[in-house]
Design a protein that fits this description.
single chain, about 130 residues, mainly alpha, 434 Repressor (Amino-terminal Domain), about 65% helix, about 0% strand, elongated
Length: about 130
């Protein structure tokens, strides 16, 4: 299975807290091998109860939890875009959803920062601002 946005973001949050797979598994009472499979994209994002236990021990910000919660049900997003959104508070789940649907032409894909900015502008237009 290909790398998943949820798994990449989960790994980033775990590494930011300097937790090993075994440490997070022990804290959240989740098998470390299961967490590893989620991070690699070999397993789908976890059910709500497991998700809540993992997030609690990752000590993620409200924004980071919102992004991760969005990715839990919308996991087909480019992992680079998801990582960019993780620490960019302008990249709300609504903006991330718009950015994930942007179609681009040409050989070069826009950077995650460009996609988020385009999505923010589109959201403002849709809201009439």
């Amino acid at each position: 299975m290909a790398e998943s946005a949820f798994g990449v973001v989960l790994r980033k949050l775990r590494e930011t807290r300097k937790l090993s797979l075994r440490d997070l598994g022990a804290l959240a009472e989740v098998d470390h091998a299961y967490i590893a499979k989620i991070e690699r994209g070999d397993k789908e994002p976890p059910p709500e109860e497991t998700f809540s236990r993992l997030v609690r021990h990752l000590k993620a910000s409200t924004h980071q939890v919102a992004v991760l919660r969005y990715l839990r049900t919308n996991n087909a997003i480019d992992p680079a875009l998801a990582l960019h959104a993780l620490n960019n508070t302008d990249a709300t789940p609504e903006v991330l959803a718009i950015a994930a649907t942007v179609v681009h032409r040409g050989a070069a894909s826009p950077s995650p920062a460009d996609l988020i900015e385009r999505a923010r502008r589109a959201k403002r237009i849709m809201e009439g601002q």
